[in-house]
Amino acid sequence: xxxxxxxxxxxxxxPTKLIAMTDIPTARDRxxxxxxxxxxxxxxxxxxxxxxxxxxxxxxxVTLHHEASALVGQVMLELLDNAGITFQSAGGLTMGADPVGxxxxxxxxxxxxxxxxxxxxxxxxxxxxxxxxxxxxxxxxDVVVLEDTSTTGGSALTAVEGVRKAGGNxxxxxxxxxxxTGSKERIEAEAGVPYLFAYSKDELGLE
Length: 207
What we know:
Elements: H1 27-39, E1 40-46, E2 52-57, H2 60-63, H3 68-82, E3 89-93, H4 98-110, E4 116-120, E5 133-134, E6 142-150, H5 154-165, E7 169-178, H6 183-191, E8 195-200
Parallel strand pairs: 3-4, 3-6, 6-7, 7-8
Antiparallel strand pairs: 1-2, 4-5
Function: Catalyzes the transfer of a ribosyl phosphate group from 5-phosphoribose 1-diphosphate to orotate, leading to the formation of orotidine monophosphate (OMP).
Cofactor: Mg(2+)
GO molecular function, one term: magnesium ion binding
């Protein structure tokens, strides 16, 4: 008679470590970290508005970064969705807004949402088709004007004016970082649309 060999139990497997959801950084948290790591430059600088500041936020180091770009699109799309802004196209004044618009467009496409991007020239072309707003036509469409950051609101207002001249219906202005230097008040007063931002300077620990 044959007897099956008794198998001795092996060492117990270590318990599986469950990762709490709070341990996984959200897209918003990760983008904030990348902004602080890559974009914030300390020291006296003169901004494009002519104002002086103790720091400079070079957000192109973020919006053109291989990891951060998709996060920018996700965070900005969520910002607009949470505010109830519906739109068909997004963009702003070249060149700070350009990668923000394309990042948002690509994230929307990943979610099977048809949102185009556009680029607003600082001045209208005097040759070719004579356009100021490049990309799919914005005429008759709901659009959002984007910026990477804003100090006085001047760039965003130039973009709003260009889009409206091209027949677009501006629903909101949205920026990644607000410097809390009056852009919100000026844009909402002059453009008559909501001004949204993903991060305040206080949230980034900037004085």
